[in-house]
Amino acid sequence: MMAAPHRQDAAQPMIVDGAPAAAQEVTVGQRNKQFTRDQMTLKAGDRIKFVNDDAVAHNIFVTGPGDKTRNSGVQEPGESATLAFDAPGTYGVECGIHPEMRMTVEVK
Ligand SMILES: [Cu+2]
What we know:
Layout: E1 25-31, E2 34-35, E3 39-42, E4 46-52, E5 58-63, E6 69-75, E7 80-85, E8 89-94, E9 102-107
Parallel strand pairs: 1-4, 3-9
Antiparallel strand pairs: 1-2, 4-7, 5-6, 5-8, 8-9
The chain binds copper (II) ion.
Copper (II) ion binds near residues 33, 58, 95, 97 and 98.
């Protein structure tokens, strides 16, 4: 049995079993012209912080679901870009500068 939701205001996120429905942020590196992960599963609302650990500039280009695309712009060495994944679905992530850099993000 789940505990009854503690609800003070309908606009507040519901708290179930005492755990806040907080979004998580995970870090993925860009190193040697590769992402440090090639696949990742997230919950809706989670974020990925992409950190450029390389000596060259990178970029984050995200496709899907649907026609939605996002582009982080250029990340110089040492810079990061944080993107939220709000809608469930399968996302393709690549570097617009090095198209061989790819990862897949599954959002549940
Ligand atoms: Cu790149």
